[in-house]
Amino acid sequence: MDRLEAMSLFVAAVEAGSLSAAGRRFGIPLATVSRKVSDLERHLKTRLLNRSTRQLTLTDAGHTYLAACRRILDEVGEAERAAAGEYSAPTGELIITAPIVFGRLHVLPVVTGFLAAYPDVAIRLMLADRITQLTEEHIDLAVRIGELPDSSLVATRIGSIRRVVCASPAYLAEHGMPETPRDLAAHNCITFEGLTAPAAWTFATGKTELAVPIRSRLRVNTAEAAVDAAIAGVGLTRVLSYQITAAVRAGTLCTVLEAFEPQPWPVSLVHAGQGLLPVKLRAFVDFAAPRLKKRLMQATWQA
């Protein structure tokens, strides 16, 4: 019995939810997967999985063995990458994640430059407005916007971004310029569910924060839609500063209430940093950090 193969099939079955899904992942028949997992159970003299026609569930022994399998397979993979030269020269695949708009505007141009400089490295860029789990999702590097919770992750700060309120000049000419956050009660607002709660926006007043109820005339779920609606004159919206740089410079949007903006959010490159760091990851961090820092500085404007 090939125990590493059996372990891999066992882990895949648990992660995919079925033996047949594990078989599809590895390109082998369901009967073969079932036999190899059963052989593994006979070798261990214990049941790892409770099988039914609808789902797989782990036994108590299966839970313990699953964690051990993942650790062993990760160590084997790291040893193979070291033997293949991944720790002596930039080679192999990097999996990187970033927020959708920031990734498209800033990370993708840096990635294309890196690929040109390092022809032996391939990159899978995942753009998503959610907090990804680096270890569980096998992600090498994440671009994170916001304060980072205490963890074992290693972070390289590359700048900061503001949370800004903006509107079109035409809207402000018709409805007036808000002077304080409380003035928002008299204004139409466009809320972006991915950034703040639709019912209220938070502002800084001295050393304290003030949550101001707002009247949402339009609710959207992407920053691009919020920005487009603001340019069209629907009302005021709150987004992140880099999302409206081009519109501000073009004169199609104006920021308001700058004196009441909350503290800027840091932007960081984050990786697990456990064990020996692959040269491909170190090369990307060294390549991307100064370039992203420069792009963030160029994306700012004076309020």
UniProtKB/TrEMBL annotation:
Q: Which residues form the HTH lysR-type domain?
A: 1-59
Q: What is this protein's name?
A: LysR family transcriptional regulator
Q: Write down the PANTHER family for this protein, in alphabetical order.
A: HTH-TYPE TRANSCRIPTIONAL ACTIVATOR TTDR-RELATED (PTHR30537:SF5), HTH-TYPE TRANSCRIPTIONAL REGULATOR (PTHR30537)
The similarity annotation says:
Belongs to the LysR transcriptional regulatory family.
One of its Pfam families is LysR_substrate
Single GO MF descriptor: sequence-specific DNA binding
CDD domains linked to this entry: PBP2_CrgA_like_2
- Kindly list the biological process annotations in GO that this record carries: DNA-templated transcription
